C-alpha cells in the first residue's frame, strides 16, 4: 500500500499540503495526523484521497509509540512524509509557561525526528520528506528563543539528512516560511507580548505550499524559501555575526512598534 503521511494536516500549511497533494502524488491512502479528530474528519471534504484519520498528540511519548506500532503493523510504502505539526510561543523566555516551552521542543523537534525515523525503513527510491522549519531557523531570535532554536534544529537536521539519504535517492526538503496566514499566530502571540509585533507581510499558505511541492519534485534544492526577505535573511546570515543579526532584528521590531 502506497501512502503519504501529513502531520498537522488539520490546519494551515498541513491542510494546504493535503489539498494540493493530488497534483504531485498518487497514493492509496493519506494518513493525516493532529490532535483534533473532528477537524481531521472534515478534511474528507477537501481531499480526493482515501484518508486515514489519526488523532494523536505528537508531543506525547505514548502517541509516538502508537504511531510507530501502526506503521510497523501496516508496513506501508511511504512515498511522501510531511512533518508540519508545530507551534511557537513568543514573549520573554521566563514568562512563557515551561510546559509550552518544552512542548515546542517535543513537537517541533523530537516528534519530527521520531516520525522521520519510523518512516525511513518504509521509504524506497524517489520517496520524499518535507520538513517544515521556519525563517526563524536562520538566526537566534530574542523573545522567540526556544521556537527559533527548535526550527534551527529542523533546518540543520533536514539538510544533513538530505545528504545522507542521497545514495538511497530519497529527497529531503526543509521549508522556511516567513509569517503565513494560519492559526499559528493565535497560539504564538501572547497578549502581554509587547516586545514583538514585527510581523511584516503575511504569506498565503497556498503559495508557500505550491513552492514547497515544486522545489521538492522539480528541483534539487535543500531549502524552499518563498519571498525576498526570507532569501535575504538566509544570505545575510552567512556574513554577519549572530549578535549583530539580533541587534538589527530588535531595532526593526522597535521601529515597527513605534509606528
Ligand atoms: N504560520 C506561520 O507564520 C509559520 C511560519 C513559519 C513556520 N511555521 C511552521 O509551520 C508549521 C505549520 O504551522 P501552521 O502555520 O500551519 O499552523 P496551524 O494552522 O496552527 O497548524 C498547526 C497544525 O499542527 C497540529 N498540531 C499542533 N499541536 C499538535 C500536537 N501536539 N500533536 C499533533 N498535532 C499538533 C494542529 O492541529 P491540532 O491543534 O488539532 O493538534 C494543526 O493541524 C509549524 O511547524 C509552524 O511552526 C508557521
Could you characterize the architecture of this molecule?
There is one protein chain. The protein has one domain (2-258): 3-Layer(aba) Sandwich (Rossmann fold). It contains nine helices and seven strands, in the order E-H-E-H-E-H-E-H-E-H-E-H-H-E-H-H. The protein has helices spanning 12-20, 37-41, 61-74, 98-119, 145-164, 184-188, 205-218, 228-236, 242-258, and strands at 2-7, 29-34, 51-55, 77-83, 128-132, 171-175, 223-224. It has a seven-stranded parallel β-sheet, sandwiched between helices. Helix 3 runs parallel beside helix 4 (98-119) and helix 4 (98-119) packs parallel to helix 5. It is globular. The mean pLDDT is 95. Bound molecules: NADP nicotinamide-adenine-dinucleotide phosphate. NADP nicotinamide-adenine-dinucleotide phosphate is lined by residues 8-14, 34-36, 39, 57-59, 84-88, 107, 132, 134, 177, 179-180, 182-184, 187.
